[in-house]
């Protein structure tokens, strides 16, 4: 945050690893979180909210490890307004060069009465107590008034003033349920600037959810009113309809700087890479028409548009694909390429893999080059992300053979899996080849999870393109999403199912304490 003293500089606070991970099905393991944190740092994110340390040992470990490795970004952990939460959070961020404790309590009448079952005065006391306590561990303390946009203004001003007096350096106003509309949210932020006497002693932040599709609009409205920190996530991941999408906020500020003269430190050329990684790790595919990062965001199909584009790109393009890191699909190395050229390609794509990982990905690249004539950047990205996703799996696919088609009824699958280091083998049948293969997995690794979604899409064009399969499993109300890529759709399907199963095993270990709501 070198130039954050600049009055128009907006601090980008990314909560993909905390609020984003709270989306049903979007759980991530430690390696995946470390990888995402590294990409966020490289893209210039100011604050990384790495998790909710009290929520589980996994969350604690992720915050702790990211705190050890982050070199420039502030590493933040979330804590409710209790001593236990704050202590756990303080311990998790302790190794950080710059660590932040983010503590919160709800301030709206409906949350105080029904969720907290506390009187406003008691909530106010707890604001002072929690912020003062957090300040014992670090001088970077953020306080959030959960459901701030539905809170009584007098009470909100009283709590904000006390939080700042108690030592909060950032005051965050969440639109927790995505209820606000832009002019109302502008007025709320302005009201805080006008009525809270010590407001100049803290950075004002906003955190908007997207239930009405207004998260980005509300965030920008707040910046216009004086907020200088925006909390957001890659691809708009987050609880329910998600959080404000970072790529949309950053590109709106950059593209319409004439109208919104604010800056961020984000290197926007890294946006696509971050988007793809988050999508691969969580299994949440990005809708094709999603602003900035959707597959169609820069595609021009209508003849009249194409004609305009050929004459002058400015006719239909308000920002260049390159500015978000989209380069024209480049043909890359072929099957005769050596490991040196491949390592150079990885660097060009922004990957910094250790020797072992680079060797494994190179081997997979060679296998792919044997099967597929043309290899594009997107194929390499899919391979690397696939490798990361699978790094710590307890269950792995060893081999798969399928017999299907009009002459082979019912379809048969012969499957070998490695489960906790032991190779197991089985034969299974099913209604179709996918069903047969999934029945085989169930026979080798019995589980109760139900398949909720099975989806296939192609990574690039052409019949020899890699298939990317997404699978969603549900067990006792918990959902996980798995992904797999391969030129063979059936192999990709089994990889995706096995990936989801591995995530379920991680999820089973997590034991969230009661009433964890954020
Ligand atoms: O949505 C919300 O209110 C939150 C807070 C914990 C910041 O996520
Ligand atoms: Zn939130």
Number of strands: 14
Strand content: 15-25%
CATH topology (level 3) name of the largest domain: TIM Barrel
For the largest beta-sheet, the strand count, sense and barrel status come to:
8 strands, parallel, barrel
Number of helices: 16
**Mind telling me the CATH class of the largest domain?**
Alpha Beta
Write down the secondary-structure element order: EHEHEHEHHEHEHEHEHHHHHHEEEHEEEH
Into which percent range does the helicity of residues fall? 25-40%
* Count of domains: 4
Q: Which CATH architecture of the largest domain would you pick?
A: Alpha-Beta Barrel
CATH level-4 homologous superfamily of the largest domain: Aldolase class I
The unreliable regions are: 511-518
The shape is: globular
Average predicted local confidence, pLDDT: 90
Q: What are the bound molecules? A: 3-methyl-2-oxobutanoic acid, zinc ion
- Calculate the terminal CA-CA distance, rounded to whole Å: 26 Å
* Structural class by SSE content: alpha/beta
The gyration radius over C-alpha positions equals: 24 Å
Biggest sheet: strand arrangement = 1-2-3-4-5-6-7-8
What does this structure look like?
With 518 residues, the chain is of the alpha/beta class. The chain folds into four domains: 274 residues, TIM Barrel; 31 residues, no CATH class; 62 residues; 119 residues, Double Stranded RNA Binding Domain (2-Layer Sandwich). Helix content is 39%, strand content 19%. The protein is built from 16 helices and 14 strands. The strands form three sheets. Strands 1-2-3-4-5-6-7-8 form an eight-stranded parallel β-barrel, surrounded by seven helices. It has a three-stranded antiparallel sheet with strand order 9-10-11. Helix 1 packs parallel to helix 2 and helix 1 packs antiparallel against helix 10. The protein is globular and about 75 Å long. The two termini are 26 Å apart. Bound molecules: 3-methyl-2-oxobutanoic acid and zinc ion. Zinc ion binds next to loops. The site of zinc ion has 6 residues, from loops.
């Amino acid at each position: 945050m070198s130039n954050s003293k600049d009055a128009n500089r907006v601090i980008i606070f990314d909560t993909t690893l905390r609020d984003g991970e709270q989306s049903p099905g979007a759980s991530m393991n430690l390696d995946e979180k470390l990888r995402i944190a590294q990409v966020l740092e490289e893209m210039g994110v100011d604050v990384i909210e790495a998790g909710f340390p009290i929520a589980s040992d996994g969350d604690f470990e992720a915050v702790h490890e990211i705190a050890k490795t982050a070199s420039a970004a502030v590493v933040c952990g979330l804590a409710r307004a209790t001593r236990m939460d704050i202590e756990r959070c303080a311990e998790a961020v302790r190794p950080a060069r710059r660590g932040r404790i983010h503590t919160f309590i709800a301030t709206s009448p409906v949350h105080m009465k029904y969720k907290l079952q506390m009187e406003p005065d008691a909530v106010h006391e707890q604001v002072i107590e929690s912020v003062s306590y957090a300040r014992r561990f670090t001088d970077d303390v953020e306080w959030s008034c959960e459901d701030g946009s539905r809170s009584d203004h007098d009470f909100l001003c009283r709590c904000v003033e006390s939080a700042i007096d108690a030592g909060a350096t950032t005051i965050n106003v969440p639109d927790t349920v995505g209820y606000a509309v832009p002019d109302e949210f502008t007025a709320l932020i302005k009201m805080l600037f006008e009525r809270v006497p010590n407001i100049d002693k803290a950075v004002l932040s906003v955190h908007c959810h997207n239930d009405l599709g207004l998260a980005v609009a509300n965030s920008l409205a707040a910046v216009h009113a004086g907020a200088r920190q925006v909390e957001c996530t890659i691809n708009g991941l987050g609880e329910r309809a998600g959080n404000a999408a970072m790529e949309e906020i950053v590109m709106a500020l950059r593209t319409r700087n004439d109208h919104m003269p604010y800056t961020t430190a984000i290197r926007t050329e890294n946006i696509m890479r971050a988007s793809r990684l988050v999508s691969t790790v969580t299994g949440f595919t990005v809708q094709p028409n999603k602003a900035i990062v959707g597959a169609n965001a820069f595609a021009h199909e209508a003849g009249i548009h194409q004609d305009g584009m050929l004459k002058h790109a400015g006719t239909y393009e308000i920002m260049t694909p390159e500015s978000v890191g989209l380069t024209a699909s480049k043909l890359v190395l072929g099957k005769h390429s050596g490991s040196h050229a491949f390592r150079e390609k990885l660097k060009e794509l922004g990957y910094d893999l250790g020797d072992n990982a680079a060797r494994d990905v190179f081997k997979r690249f060679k296998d792919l080059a044997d099967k597929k004539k043309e290899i594009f950047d997107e194929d390499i990205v899919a391979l690397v992300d696939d490798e990361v996703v699978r790094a710590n799996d307890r269950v792995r696919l060893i081999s798969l053979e399928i017999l299907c088609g009009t002459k082979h009824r019912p379809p048969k699958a012969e499957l070998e899996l490695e489960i906790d280091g032991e190779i197991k083998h089985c034969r299974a049948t099913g209604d179709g080849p996918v069903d047969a293969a999934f029945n085989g997995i169930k026979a080798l690794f019995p589980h109760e999870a139900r398949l909720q979604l099975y989806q296939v899409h192609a990574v690039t064009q052409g019949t020899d393109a890699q298939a990317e399969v997404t699978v969603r499993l549900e067990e006792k109300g918990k959902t996980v999403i798995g992904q797999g890529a391969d030129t063979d759709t059936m192999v990709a399907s089994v990889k995706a199912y096995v990936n989801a199963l591995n995530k379920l095993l991680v999820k089973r270990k997590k034991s969230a304490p009661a009433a964890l709501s954020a």
